Amino acid sequence: MKKYLSFTHILFIVIALLTSCSDDNETITTDFRLTTISIGEQQNLSAFTNVDPEASIVLQFSDAVDESTVAKNIRFIELDGEDEFELKVNYQMDADNKKLTVTPVNVLSNYSSYKFVVYPGIKSAAGEPIFTGKVYSIKTGMEDSDKFDRIDDEELLTLVQRQTFSYFWDFGHPDCGMARERSTSTNTVATGGTGFGVMSIIVAAERNFISKEAALERIQKIVDFLGRCESYHGAYSHWIYGDSGFIQPFSDIDDGVDLLETSLLFQGLLTARAYFKNGNEAEQKLCADITKLWEAIDWNWFRKESSENVLYWHWSRNHGWEMGLKISGWNEGLIAYVLAASSPTNAVDKVVYDEGWANNGGMKNGKVYYDYVLPLGTDNGGPLFLSQYSFLGINPKGLSDAYANYEEQTRNHALINYNYCVNNPRDYAGYGENCWGLTASDGDNGYSAHSPNNDNGVIAPTAALTSFPFTPEESMKALHFFYYKLGDKIWGKYGFVDAFNLGKQWFDKEFIAINQGPIICMIENYRSGLLWNLFMSDPDIQNGMKKLGFSSPDLK
Fold it and tell me: What span, in angstroms and rounded, lies between the C-alpha atoms of 48 and 288?
């Protein structure tokens, strides 16, 4: 049973002993001293930080120690909020009784706080009391051993893509092939997550994880299902029942269609159309079926029945436009406006982009954070998915329009997020150059859009790994840390779990489609540019982006 100790009580004893006097009120003097305290390579500090949880504490004394006085005059205390718990330790003296090694019976916890107290009741073998007592602060880091054998970085990237892909392949809904919302979902499939899944299937075919024929069959199954699904004005709901195709409400009044989720879905489907466009008869059929769904979307309807120069996120047959949420920048919604302008049947005009998305320039930021200019968006950039989801297909390299250089936007957003974690202003456990990445994810207190402005110690692997095209060195360091150092806790059957909090020693058990898919896709864009090349080559996308005023090497 752990013994509770009061810090006040300990301090009182130490002070009392330090100030104890002889009968004639003269202070006792002694030459018996604790000369050195070391933990690993750190020595003679009042506060030891980033200590290996398996480390021992080594005390060096000036003279031989009376071993019988050791056990009752040394305390190793774990701090847990306002509570304190005494740890059981083993003591080992060297041959001359001058060096004492103190080792906890149980390995210390990662990223935890402790107090090590040496009372002045320790005596030398000659009977002298120690010159003074000491109180030391100890904060552990993380046990640093590799959990898996080191492999070549290219092999590691392939491993991450392959294992993460199994979420969409092995765990795809058996009736419709679409991506389930999360790894605990049964009949709930995700529209946007399926768009990411379709792009992941294309990567898998190119990487020979599956055959191109198998990829075609799965995507055709998804497209056939979408042709039977409940939809309105060509758009689909956020969640769908995977067996029936009926809308599954996302909330009480969000029980209709979701234009942004639909856009993320079609980012994937148009990429698939480009991939199979020159193929055999079966591939041509898939392309024709995708085109039919694509041309059915009435983008202008989502201008609140063509009455406003802005796209609305939701519409419901039960609640109409009651949700009232406009897709207005800067956020993940750029893809919706690119697709809306690119439609061959129901395209919106540039004014909708300028007034509705860009707010006539109101989405600009231009401030400097950690020495990086942020062209667009909220202070410190917000969660990283805002500059990631639309760019699975849209290539930001060399891309610009009247409002921003999007290569600068995506890169600097990632670097601001990275540098925030390195600076770690809230002193969260584990944050640093190897452990970074704040975005929407699970957390120990529930799902949240984590960011520098909403930071509670939760790191999501997808944030750093999806940033590979923008921050390759920083992302590779993060990948090494996630896989080699935390792999026993966060690496699973579908790749990396959604999130973790090292300070709370909380590690998610779940995987989420919208976070798994971008990992595969953006690692591939970093490695080969495959998805960017496919999506940007689509003639409809070429026309739409040029109409909106974009310029880039991809826009011929």
Answer: 65
Q: What pLDDT is stored for residue 23 in this prediction?
A: 41
Give backbone dihedrals phi and psi of 454, rounded to 5 degrees, phi first: -145, 65
d(CA 434, CA 438): 13
Instruction: For residues 337 and 351, give the distance between their C-alpha atoms in angstroms, rounded to a whole number.
Output: 11
Per-10-residue mean pLDDT of the chain, 556 residues long, equals: 45 43 48 95 95 95 96 94 92 96 94 94 94 92 94 98 98 98 98 98 98 98 98 98 98 97 98 98 98 98 97 97 97 98 98 98 98 98 98 98 98 98 96 98 98 98 98 98 97 98 95 98 98 98 98 96
Order the strands of the 247-248 sheet from edge to edge: 188-190, 239-241, 247-248
CB atoms within 10 A of CB 110: 18
Q: What does the pLDDT read at residue 132?
A: 85
116 class by beta-carbon count within 10 Å (0-12 exposed, 13-18 middle, 19+ buried): buried
DSSP 483-528: IIITHHHHEETTEE-S-EETTTTEE----BHHHHHHHHHHHHHHHT
Residue 184: burial class (beta carbons within 10 Å; 0-12, 13-18, 19+) = exposed
CA distance 378 to 208: 40
Please compute Rg for the chain using Cα positions. Answer: 30
Contact present, 33 and 62 (Cβ < 8 Å):
yes
Q: Which two tokens stand for residue 392?
A: 């699975």
20 vs 23: CA distance, rounded Å = 10
User: How many other C-beta atoms can be found within 10 angstroms of the C-beta atom of residue 4?
Assistant: 10
Secondary structure class of 81 (helix, strand, coil)? coil
Q: 140: which strand partners?
A: 51
CA–CA dist 86, 66 (Å, integer): 23
Q: What integer pLDDT is reported at residue 81 of this predicted model?
A: 80
CA gap 446, 508 in Å, rounded:
10
CA distance 47 to 45: 5
Rounded CA-CA distance 456/296 in Å is 43
- Summary count for the chain: helices (H), strands (E): 15, 23
Q: Position 446: which residue type?
A: G
pLDDT of residue 80: 84
Backbone φ and ψ for 491, nearest 5 degrees, come out as: -100, 125
pTM of the full structure: 0.89
Residue with tokens 């792009």, as numbered in its chain:
199
Gap between the Cα atoms of 8 and 10, Å rounded: 5
Whole-number Cα distances in Å, 36 to 31, 89, 100, 527: 14, 19, 11, 52
402 three-state secondary structure: coil
- Integer Cα distance of 300 and 306 in angstroms: 5
Determine the 3-state secondary structure of 134 from DSSP: strand
Helix, strand and coil percent figures for the chain, each rounded to 5: 40, 20, 45
Q: How confident is the model at residue 7, as a pLDDT?
A: 46
Q: What separation in angstroms does the CA of 530 have from each of 31, 300, 522?
A: 73, 31, 10
